[in-house]
Amino acid sequence: MEREEFLSVYRHSLAHVMAKAVIEVYGKDNVQYAIGPQIEDGCYYDFLLPRPVSDEDIKVIEDKMHEIIKRREAWTRKEVSRAEALEIFKDQKFKTELINDLPEDELITTYNTGDDFIDLCRGPHIENSQELFQAAFKIKNVSGAYWRGDEKRDQLQRIYLFAFPSKDELKAHLQWLKEAQERDHKKIGVQLDMFMFRDTAPGMAYWLPRGWIMYSQLMKYSRELQLKHDYSEISAPLINNKKLWLISGHWAHYVNNMFIVPGVTKDTSAEDKVTSDETAVHYDIEAEDTMAAKPMNCPNAMIEYKRTMHSYKELPIRYSEYDVLHRKEKSGQLNGLFRVQEFRQDDDHTFVTADQIKDEIKDVISIADEIYKTFGLTYRAEFSTRPEDYMGDIESWNQAEAALKDILDEKYGEGNYEVNEGDGAFYGPKIDLQIKDALGREWQCGTVQLDFQLPHNFELTYVDKDGSQKMPIVIHRAIFGSLERFIGIITEHFKGAYPFWLNPYQVAIVPIREEHNEYAKKVEKALKEAGIRVEVDYNDINMRDKIKRFKNMKDPYILVLGNEEAAANEVSVNVRGSNQQVRNVPLDRFIEVCSKLNAERTLELPGEF
């Protein structure tokens, strides 16, 4: 049995053991058990219980699981009819609902764990509990979960379980989890005073001065790089009439994820009008003046392209855009900067001819190579093909998919990338770039999407060599993806100790006493004139307190200035991550090193000058 298959059976079986344990702890008549699938690092099971699961309960449930395993109970699979299944689970409303929702010809199976626990399940499972003797597991946490994800249904308690084949693997995973928690961008963002969230704007970050400096540096880097590749930047309205989204197809495919401002209809026959000149006003998303905040930039780019006739000589036309986007998410899906409702992308829509597709996408991937290398990130490519709700004709889709496949085969080698069948955008296939962080986690950031549909919907054309009008093809492209999400990723990747060029403040200055403030001001001015971001503490407080505060903010360099430094026009440098102080560094030499770090955007932080 392959490891993944083994882990699936192992973890799913432990979910059954956990369900049996919960029933024995709380009493059969007090437990409604729903579903218990395996997941990446273990499993979970959803329950409706008479009271919240406490910390004390968790220990009792774990102990009961070990006790059940030691019983060496046999596991028995049985095929049953729908009527038999409904009789077996007549007191379990969630199981009854699942059975009633099964297709008429569905094979229904149950699994008995010993003589006193039975579950509705397809399996497969172990044959005897003794196979779990070496099981290493730990209850992770308990959270709320609505039945079938519907907030109008029962709210259940979801008990998560870490499950691994050995104690060493569980221990390693718990250590990894501890490291991940220490890198949590939500915690670090608060510690470094970079961003915050408030319930007045759920899923929308308040960027504080330090955080906005970093945000701006990312956009500056992106803009500089795109300028070298002949991109033009545009901006467009953030709110558009729904007719734009009807043309683009987003209204049909994305309306539930859009923030909508309903239009107005007037009822001249309303009984509650105050005078004969007044009418009752009703807000209605079907009204012609309904507006929506844009979740994507692409329709606006089509509008800007269409403003004039274009020649084949002008193509490729590359429209980059950093406008604010809004996408409506369920409150339970929001997660710091990783899942937000307001964000910006390093977005681009490039208009090309058919014979320019290959070179253009190769250039996009070269930009991705450069950007990810700058952050020390590696990535792999995924190819996503036509989804079920696709827009357009099959021939165009086949052409687009063949073009992307050829590019991937040439760049990475045939078979050296993952194919996700049916996971493309509704308007075209795509290449997604999955980056890997310091903990080995993968994140989808970059995307390259080939689109034959929106140009058709917006009736875009260009004049070809022979004077005929042809339709351009659009390449949708982002490298960072959501800047919010990318900042969250690199915050956890670097644990808040960002590269020098990106750090909000690069140099902190600590005059030892008040009489050293004058020299500190001279150093501050020289650094700022060189384009180096500086913060200074001129307060008459203990020098160690100043240094500690700047260390907590993870500033790369802290300069300590006293009599010797002022007399020699030098600085003493505390280097982030080191307890050593580098003394007698000429100010000009220090500025030269910092300027080079900014110009080259290097990852390393020199400790020698």
Description:
This protein is an alpha+beta fold. It has 3 domains: 180 residues, Threonyl-trna Synthetase, Chain A, domain 2 (Threonyl-tRNA Synthetase, Chain A, domain 2, 2-Layer Sandwich), CATH 3.30.980.10; 233 residues, Bira Bifunctional Protein, Domain 2 (BirA Bifunctional Protein, domain 2, 2-Layer Sandwich), CATH 3.30.930.10; 94 residues, 3-Layer(aba) Sandwich (Rossmann fold), CATH 3.40.50. It contains 18 helices and 32 strands. Strands 11-17-20-27-24-23-21-22 form an 8-stranded mixed beta sheet, sandwiched between helices. Strands 1, 2, 3, 7 and 8 form a 5-stranded antiparallel beta sheet that branches. It has a 5-stranded mixed beta sheet with strand order 29-28-30-31-32, sandwiched between helices. α6 crosses α14 and α11 crosses α12. The longest helix has 24 residues. It is globular and about 90 Å long. It starts with a helix and ends in a 9-residue tail after the last helix. The model has no long low-confidence stretch (mean pLDDT 92).
Q: Short description, anyone?
A:
With 609 residues, the chain is of the alpha+beta class.
The name CATH uses for the topology of the largest domain is BirA Bifunctional Protein, domain 2
CATH C-level class of the largest domain: Alpha Beta
- According to DSSP, the number of beta strands is 32
How far is the N terminus from the C terminus? Answer: 57 Å
CATH-scheme architecture of the largest domain: 2-Layer Sandwich
Please state roughly what percent of the residues sit in beta strands, choosing from under 5%, 5-15%, 15-25%, 25-35%, 35-45% or over 45%: 15-25%
Task: Name the structural class.
Answer: alpha+beta
How many discrete structural domains? 3
What gross morphology would you assign?
Answer: globular
User: CATH homologous superfamily of the largest domain?
Assistant: Bira Bifunctional Protein, Domain 2
The average pLDDT score comes to: 92
Weakly predicted, low-confidence segments: none
